[in-house]
Amino acid sequence: MNTYMPYLEDMIQFESFPEIGVDRGALSKNEIREIVKFADEHFVEVIPAFQTLGHYENILSQKNLYNMPIGQARLRWMLQIPKHILFRITFKRSIRAIPSKYFHMGADESYDVGFGNSRKLVEQSDLATVHANHYKRIYDICNKNNKEVMMYGDIILSHPEILEKIPEDITIVDWHYFPKFNYPSAKTFDTAGFNYIVSPTVWNFNAAFPENFFAIPNIQTFIEDGINNNSMGMINSSWGDFGAETFREYNLYGYAWSAQCSWNISESDANNFNKTFFKQFFGTNDNKIELIYKNLTDPVNQLVWGNIWRHPLLDYRKADWRQFNFPQASKFYLMKNENSDLEILANFKESATNNKEFLDLLEFTLKLKKNGF
Known about the structure:
- The protein is built from 13 helices and seven strands.
- Helix content is 43%, strand content 6%.
- Helix 11 runs antiparallel to helix 12 (327-351) and helix 12 packs antiparallel against helix 13.
- It is globular, with a radius of gyration of 22 Å.
- The model is unreliable at 323-335 (pLDDT under 50).
- A five-stranded parallel beta sheet has the order 3-4-5-6-7. The protein has a two-stranded parallel ribbon with strand order 1-2.
- The longest helix is centred in the C-terminal third of the chain and has 25 residues, at 327-351.
């Protein structure tokens, strides 16, 4: 691992807008310096990812900022495209906060371009041109600050003519999270002559345990397509959607699988990987821990994780695709496996010699599963 790319949004303190990131862990100048120093000591480059178009929902939800004029109308997570004082100040601060030669300008999921104040811009040209012109403005500012630009590629894939309108030295971060038999976008960016990075995910969002049944094939196939189409490398996406319910330690499995596939795709077999990973991670030849992982990540078992940290006085979160499919079967499955998993874990603790504190997290999750529904 040689790159850490923190997604900032409202996770950085701004003197001009002190309300941004309050009670959400926004990083101070000293904390940023500490992260960069620690990473540098371990040969890891910290690359800031700061939004420059959409995904301002956490910032715009602040009371003092909610009524600021925004450029779009539907999702309320975008600023005006041309200029906005909030954007200018926060962007200037973020671009200088971390000394990497790269700056990731985000720009993903900017679905509101063409609505609100940006409608006239689109009417005068087209969506691709409006997006491209914005990207070039950010690119020019980054260039003046000696930064090489990265950006997400999803909007480009929806409007591929953008590729002909933006500088070719922008590095595209090509993200796809659902498993597929192939990812044509890798060839698209390679053929267009752009440097790009494939970005699968550990599937740790909106779940108390990573959804490895999605993550394993997504990581393997996407990395293979990237290798076959001259990708610069891979960066694994670890998101905190809906409160980051997954303990970060659980992501280590997916990170290790990413490394396995990135470094030796021809010998990347999930079953063999499991045997090696658990043996090395826990320091024992006992492989029964695989069964617990299998049960926790089983698609049926994932159906009911959505409200696990819900405050008892709040309404239940709106059901997603998990709750719409077989909720009763999910409850039955939980009841069926809860005791045997705890028994397996208790026996496994006696043989494990490494990372025993990790087993305490597993025990907590299994007991939560047992008592929480």
